[in-house]
């Protein structure tokens, strides 16, 4: 899977909205990590990652979110995933990561 | 003067022995812009340019005296208005010493000669340019040949390196596969497995061990990603879980040990950090119980003899993800004739989980080997369509 991942960050006050579009896999995960980790290391920031336009994610992508969550725990920030497609949300459920990471209950129809 | 001589296309005139002009034709008069009366009786020097006058005395006079003839001598005439006119002169003298001259203006010829000289000069310059470019091309060609030779050499080195790497990877694959356990088949239990790396080395690993007469430990792990880095971690975990399972370490403690081992591997090395999903089953055939811990792994499928299915969902996140996690053990009773399917996400991605549930239900009555073949055929069909993106591994357990 080597499709580009678009990453857009909008920061306002103490909130950072990260808009993602594409697929998150071994090829694109480094790009996401590069964008997300510096935010997660900032103090007292609410990071809201919008996954509405992400239709595929593999274990490498999950790894980025685990790293980001760990960083927010240390910096006192908060990570929240919103608008996940069914397929991606199922991945968090199967791995039981939905019990650790805050995931918005609103789920949009995906593939 | 004869009319024809008067209209000759060349200039004509005659001179006396004193070099006075005796006769002149119309063509020459037009060329020099004189009237006939203005030239007759005048010395020849009237119509010669200043430089030609000297030359005329030095060359023309002696030649006419000695040879009575001049052929194709270059001179410059001077018109009435003072314009210099280049000409070629032919002259002879008769028995009365009268000198008859014919002149041909060569203004056009000079222009042509100048053009020819210019063209020659341009051609020579072009030739120099061509030679220069030719030299540059030869140099470039020589450089290209040298580069090509270097490329061939590098290519040969790469091919050699690739071959050696491939050989090493194949050897590593053999070593990794050697670490996998052999199938178990006795009066209480039968365990079969399948293992397919998406590249030479896999991030999946499994193990099943008979702990004592009635107890068995079955584990399946999937390290994040795949390839060399993931495979190295599987080998490290494999050594640990083999030792722990063989000792009969409790399920939750085993998972905790593996979790701590992973955290220890990447302590102070965030860049190399990997996590791992794992499911561990502790089966007691005497008590007919199964204790399991699922750490972020796709749910194992249990199919009882009465067609009831149970999914062994994860109750905690993958090992290596967060420190200090609690790994909850779940226990259930099984009935003889049940079948369990454990798999990695490489299998469930190619086959939606529902599909695996249905396959398990549909083929519950066929022998374990045949069920394995059914699963393999289904996986192979998907692989043929898209190729395996991830490592694929599954374990089938029949409880007798």
UniProtKB/TrEMBL annotation, chain A:
RNA-binding listed as a keyword: no
Keyword Phosphoprotein annotated: yes
GO molecular function term, any single one: anti-sigma factor antagonist activity
InterPro entries the UniProt entry points to: Anti-sigma_ant, STAS_dom, STAS_dom_sf
Domain STAS: 5-111
Alphabetic keyword roster: Phosphoprotein
PROSITE patterns membership: STAS
NCBIfam families assigned to the protein according to its UniProt record, in alphabetical order: ant_ant_sig (TIGR00377)
Family to which the UniProt record says this protein belongs: Belongs to the anti-sigma-factor antagonist family.
PANTHER family for the chain: ANTI-SIGMA FACTOR ANTAGONIST TM_1081-RELATED-RELATED (PTHR33495), ANTI-SIGMA-B FACTOR ANTAGONIST (PTHR33495:SF9)
Function: Positive regulator of sigma-B activity. Non-phosphorylated RsbV binds to RsbW, preventing its association with sigma-B. When phosphorylated, releases RsbW, which is then free to complex with and inactivate sigma-B.
Name of the protein in its database record: Anti-sigma factor antagonist
Automatic annotation (TrEMBL), chain B:
InterPro entries for this protein: Bact_Sigma-Reg (IPR052016), PAS (IPR000014), PAS-like_dom_sf (IPR035965), PPM-type-like_dom_sf (IPR036457), PPM-type_phosphatase-like_dom (IPR001932)
Molecular function via GO: phosphatase activity
Keywords: Coiled coil, Hydrolase
Domain PAS, residue spans: 1-43
Any one Pfam family match given in the protein's UniProt record, by short name: PAS_9
Native organism: Aquibacillus koreensis
NCBIfam families registered for this protein in UniProt: sensory_box (TIGR00229)
Residues in coiled coil: 127-164
Classification via SUPFAM superfamilies: PP2C-like, PYP-like sensor domain (PAS domain)
Protein name, entry field: SpoIIE family protein phosphatase
Higher taxonomy: Bacteria, Bacillati, Bacillota, Bacilli, Bacillales
UniProt cross-references to PROSITE patterns, sorted A to Z: PAS
């Amino acid at each position: 899977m080597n499709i580009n991942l678009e990453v857009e960050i909008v920061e306002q006050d103490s909130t950072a909205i990260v808009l993602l579009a594409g697929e998150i896999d071994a090829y694109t995960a480094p790009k996401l990590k590069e964008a997300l980790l510096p935010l997660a290391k900032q103090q007292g920031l609410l990071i809201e990652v919008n996954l509405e336009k992400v239709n595929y994610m593999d274990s490498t992508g999950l790894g980025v979110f685990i790293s980001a969550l760990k960083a927010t725990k240390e910096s006192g920030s908060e990570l929240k995933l919103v608008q996940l497609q069914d397929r991606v949300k199922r991945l968090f459920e199967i791995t039981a990561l939905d019990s650790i990471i805050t995931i918005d209950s609103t789920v949009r129809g995906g593939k | 003067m004869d009319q024809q001589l008067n209209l000759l296309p060349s200039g004509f005139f005659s001179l006396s022995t004193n070099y006075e002009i005796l006769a002149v034709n119309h063509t020459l008069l037009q060329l020099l812009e004189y009237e006939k009366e203005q030239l007759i009786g005048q010395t020849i020097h009237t119509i010669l340019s200043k430089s030609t006058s000297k030359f005329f005395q030095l060359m023309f006079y002696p030649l006419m005296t000695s040879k009575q003839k001049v052929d194709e001598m270059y001179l410059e005439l001077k018109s009435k208005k003072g314009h210099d006119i280049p000409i070629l002169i032919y002259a002879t003298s008769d028995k009365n010493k009268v000198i008859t001259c014919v002149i041909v203006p060569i203004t056009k010829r000079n222009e042509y000669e100048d053009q020819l000289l210019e063209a020659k000069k341009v051609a020579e310059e072009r030739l120099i340019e061509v030679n220069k470019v030719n030299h540059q091309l030869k140099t470039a060609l020589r450089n290209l040949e040298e580069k090509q030779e270097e490329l061939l050499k590098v290519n040969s080195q790469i091919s050699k390196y690739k071959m050696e790497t491939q050989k090493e990877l194949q050897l590593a694959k053999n070593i990794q596969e050697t670490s996998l356990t052999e199938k178990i088949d006795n009066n209480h239990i039968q365990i079969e497995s399948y293992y397919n790396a998406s590249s030479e080395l896999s991030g999946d690993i499994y193990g099943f061990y008979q702990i004592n007469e009635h107890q068995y430990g079955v584990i399946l792990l999937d390290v994040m990603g795949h390839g060399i880095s993931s495979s190295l971690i599987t080998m490290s975990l494999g050594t640990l879980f083999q030792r722990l399972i063989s000792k009969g370490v409790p399920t939750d403690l085993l998972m905790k040990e593996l979790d701590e081992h992973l955290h220890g591997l990447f302590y102070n090395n965030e860049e190399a950090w990997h996590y791992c999903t794992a499911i561990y089953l502790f089966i007691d055939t005497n008590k007919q119980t199964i204790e399991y811990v699922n750490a972020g792994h796709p749910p194992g499928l249990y199919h009882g003899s009465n067609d009831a299915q149970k999914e062994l969902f994860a109750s905690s996140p993958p090992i290596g993800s967060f420190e200090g996690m609690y790994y909850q053990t779940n226990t259930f009773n099984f009935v003889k004739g049940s079948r369990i399917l454990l798999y990695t996400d490489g299998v469930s991605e190619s086959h939606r989980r529902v599909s695996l549930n249905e396959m398990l239900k549909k083929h519950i009555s066929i022998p374990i080997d045949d069920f394995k073949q059914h699963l393999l055929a289904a996986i192979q069909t998907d692989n043929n369509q898209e190729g395996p993106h991830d490592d694929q591994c599954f374990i089938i357990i029949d409880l007798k």
